[in-house]
Amino acid sequence: MGEDAFEDIFLALERAEHFIFIDFFIVAEGALWDKVHEILKRKLSQGVEIKFLYDDFGAAVRTRKFFQQILEHEGIEVRIFNPVHKYTGELYMNYRSHQKILVVDGEVGFTGGFNLADEYANLIERFGVWKDTGVRIIGDAVWGLTVVFLQMWEACGTDDKHIDYLKYKMLSDVQGDTWCQVISDGPANNPNNPIESVYNQMITFSDEYLYITTPYLIIEDYMKQSLIEAARRGVDVRIVTPNIPDKKYAKLLTNYNYGILLRGGVRIYEYTPGFIHAKQVVTENAAIVGTINMDYRSFYLHYENGVWMSGKRVQETIRKDFEELFATGKEITYEEWENRPVRWKMVQPVLNLFSTLF
Question: The dihedral of CA 150, 151, 154, 155: what is its sign?
Fold first, then answer.
């Protein structure tokens, strides 16, 4: 996913006639935001309703001080998830909205790993070539994204006014060849997390292949064992992680988990052109594209969303993307892992003790 993929988003925004819902973890002012902002202002002048939701932690550093007030003055409705200030406790501050949702007129929706920042369109370079994935959905499945957005919008409000959800439900006559289910999750569901359960189901019921991309591989022992058991029963299990990390501690912890998985028959690749931020899973039965990292934060601390899909065409498209990643990436062997730097071997067990904090 790069600059070309955002053209679909721009086109959908340009076609908006009734409403636009936007929810992102990171919002950064720059060329990408300028383009989106330009379209939003034009749509406002045409009477389109715009609701814009973002996580305060993800946007605070990369937007100007009065960003919210500027948008509200223009006529955009704005709400912020879990504002960060000096009175916010560290535990509460850990709960973030990592969701990415864009819905136009209830007819088309987008989600995936991407945020509203220039690096996601490769307009600037931060960690080499930025690789991400997203999905565009039309038809009845868009209602799922609409509901997830409105639930978070209400949760971030300061009044008790209830939204008429059905006002934003559009009748669709789209006939597709893919079954889609929007999934969402958050710390309110702990310890019974729907998204974690879906991931476990995909691992457990895979028979032929199981391919995963994740920027962070910091998972609990039971999930490592599930991946190993899948490999041992003959499933082709492969995981793609970044070669160039965005966080050094995450790289160390991700690498630390390679060992047990490699010994168990799981194949691991690193995306050598740069940083892979994509969050996707595909098997012979189904696929997921969304915001979910394979780490403790996504499963227990963050609000997340994704699209669970089943259909020959979409699964083949995602599998082809993986095959390209395998061809351009570097496969890591157990011997290479054993010969990692001594300083890594010293630091990793200590970091692992605190892995649930990362």
Answer: negative
Q: Which residues pair with 79 in a beta bridge?
A: 53
Element of type H or E holding 137:
strand 134-138
pTM: 0.94
Q: Find the radius of gyration of the CA atoms of the chain.
A: 20
* Structure tokens given for 13: 């925004």
| Same-fold call for 3-168 versus 179-357 | yes
Going from N- to C-terminal start, the domains of the chain cover 3-168, 179-357
Least confident of 102-111, 299-308, 349-358: 349-358
User: How many residues are recorded in the chain?
Assistant: 358
Q: What is the CATH number of domain 179-357?
A: 3.30.870.10
Looking at the domain 3-168, which fold is it?
Endonuclease; Chain A (3.30.870)
d(C-alpha 43, C-alpha 38), whole Å: 9
Q: Is 239's pLDDT higher than 60?
A: yes
Identity of the amino acid at 255: N
- Residue 90 predicted with pLDDT over 60: no
